[in-house]
């Protein structure tokens, strides 16, 4: 059976933080080239349909923690707080793997980005799962701790915003359409990146509920990865649509 190595958790979490800063430096000024930011003259070779790509990319984040849990002998069932935290992580990726891809109407996804995205999901799935299943130690009453309860509420709020925003984005297109339109309704009334805002809130909620270095490193990575993308989406909408609401912010309502 595996053992907990705190030095491994520290090293992997630190590397995740460094990767977050690398993402920020690479994509703060120039967006990653997929979806609406794809080069128009780019040939469609080396791509997978969006549904298949999202399924392949997100699957390790669900499977790796599940496998780590299955490999633990005896299985870790206590304390309840630890079990719930692991379930929250897997719940998010169950949705992203088995539900979201089959409704998305995005464009074909570049294989290069898919490869790196899949690697990240393996890496982060291992880090979060390994910490929670083999290393985390919580008191028996962690479920009533203010950090757990407030973090759980933030997680659920963020996931709700994320799923609702994805639904609104899907409704913008009819089957087979690839044109982009102005998102309307929900939190899109206030920000261009409502779906990204929801996911960032979700993972910071998870970090507070978990109160661990790996979870905070992941929340920071999420902010550095999709925060700039929300900013570039905002700029794209402003340039593309003359009637785009000028009162909308890029990511954070009433602020940015």
From TrEMBL:
It is found in: Endoplasmic reticulum membrane; Microsome membrane. Keywords: Differentiation, Endoplasmic reticulum, Lipid metabolism, Membrane, Microsome, NADP, Oxidoreductase, Sexual differentiation, Transmembrane, Transmembrane helix. GO terms for molecular function: 3-oxo-5-alpha-steroid 4-dehydrogenase (NADP+) activity. Residues 108-256 form the 3-oxo-5-alpha-steroid 4-dehydrogenase C-terminal domain. Its EC number is 1.3.1.22. It catalyses: a 3-oxo-5alpha-steroid + NADP(+) = a 3-oxo-Delta(4)-steroid + NADPH + H(+); 5alpha-pregnane-3,20-dione + NADP(+) = progesterone + NADPH + H(+); 17beta-hydroxy-5alpha-androstan-3-one + NADP(+) = testosterone + NADPH + H(+). It is an enzyme of class 1 (oxidoreductase). The chain crosses the membrane at residues 109-134, 146-165, 203-226. It comes from the Eukaryota. One of its GO terms (cellular component) is endoplasmic reticulum membrane. InterPro entries: 3-oxo-5-alpha-steroid_4-DH, 3-oxo-5_a-steroid_4-DH_C, SRD5A/TECR. Its main location: endoplasmic reticulum. GO terms for biological process: androgen biosynthetic process; cell differentiation; sex differentiation. It holds the Pfam family Steroid_dh. It is a multi-pass membrane protein. Belongs to the steroid 5-alpha reductase family. Converts testosterone (T) into 5-alpha-dihydrotestosterone (DHT) and progesterone or corticosterone into their corresponding 5-alpha-3-oxosteroids. It plays a central role in sexual differentiation and androgen physiology. This is 3-oxo-5-alpha-steroid 4-dehydrogenase 2. The lineage of its organism: Eukaryota, Metazoa, Chordata, Craniata, Vertebrata.
């Amino acid at each position: 059976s595996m053992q907990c190595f705190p030095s491994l958790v520290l090293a992997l979490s630190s590397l995740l933080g460094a990767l977050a800063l690398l993402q920020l430096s690479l994509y703060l000024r120039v967006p990653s080239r997929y979806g609406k930011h794809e080069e128009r003259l780019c040939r469609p070779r080396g791509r997978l349909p969006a549904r298949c790509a999202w399924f392949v990319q997100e699957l390790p984040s669900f499977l790796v923690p599940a496998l780590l849990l299955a490999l633990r002998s005896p299985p870790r069932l206590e304390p309840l707080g630890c079990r719930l935290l692991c379930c929250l992580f897997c719940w998010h990726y169950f949705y992203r793997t088995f539900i979201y891809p089959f409704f998305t109407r995005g464009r074909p996804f570049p294989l290069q980005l898919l490869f790196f995205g899949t690697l990240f999901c393996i890496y982060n799935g291992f880090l979060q799962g390994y910490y929670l299943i083999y290393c985390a130690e919580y008191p028996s009453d962690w479920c009533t701790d203010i950090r757990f309860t407030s973090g759980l509420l933030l997680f659920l709020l963020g996931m709700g915003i994320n799923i609702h925003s994805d639904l609104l984005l899907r409704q913008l297109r009819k089957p087979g359409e690839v044109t982009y339109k102005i998102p309307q309704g929900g939190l899109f009334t206030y920000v261009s990146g409502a779906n990204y805002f929801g996911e960032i809130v979700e993972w910071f909620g998870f970090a507070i509920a978990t109160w661990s270095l790996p979870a905070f490193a992941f929340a920071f990575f999420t902010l550095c990865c999709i925060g700039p993308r929300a900013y570039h989406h905002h700029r794209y909408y402003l340039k593309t649509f003359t009637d785009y609401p000028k009162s909308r912010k890029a990511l954070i309502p009433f602020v940015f």
